[in-house]
Structures are given as structure tokens and as C-alpha cells.
Amino acid sequence: MPSTTPPPTRPALVGLAVYAVDLDRLVAFYRGVLDLAEVERGPGFVTLADTSCELSVVAIPAEIAARLTVGSPPRLQEDAALKPVFVVASLAEAAVRAAELGGGTRDQDSAWTFRGLRRLDGFDPEGNVVQFAEVV
What we know:
Helix content is 19%, strand content 32%. By secondary structure, it is an alpha+beta fold.
């Protein structure tokens, strides 16, 4: 049975932390695809935000990062327990920007609509699976 509850009008999540092998590359990806501003930078982290989303990209400690291989294209982390959903102005534009910045999305034909948002799965340059969504 389809849901009749409207999508939330306020964010249910204050923020999200993403751990990175390559801090600057992931910052460039999320800043570029999600159009977020850098609001804080410190040793080993950068926080990006707008009025509805706060994303902290945190460097994985060097001794651990040295043992990790990202690959090109990255191996998708599809076995993760969480998949963040980011609202964007345009799925088509997000797909282009994601590819330009080392990530990607599934084909536009695989997008679907659920709870007032058209959704498309994608991934960042380190293979973290994300979902982009636009208001319909």
C-alpha cells in the first residue's frame, strides 16, 4: 500500500560524517555535487553545510588509510548498513557533477519516485553509496 504521509518539512538529521581516505577529493565531491559551503576546517576534517544539511568529511588515520585500496572506478561499498539521501536541485545535474568529480550514478532511467522525491542511487569517489533526490 503506498504511503500517504507527506515527506518531512524539516530535516530529521542534523548532520552526517563520512570517513575519507582522500579528504580533499571527498570534500571537492560533496561540495561540488551538493553545492555546500565549507564552514569549518581543522586537522583531519572539513565540515560542509547549507541551511538544511551538515556534512563532515573526516580523514581516516594514515596508518589505516595506507591499508585501504579505493580503486578506479571505486569498488562500491554496497554492504554498508546506511545510505544517505541528499536532496539536489536536479538529478541530471547531480549525475553530471558526480561523474566529473570521480563518483557516479546509476542510469537516469533507473530513477524512481517515492514520498514526493524522484530518487537516483549514486556513489562518491571512494565507493560510498549515496542517493540523490529531487522534489517532484
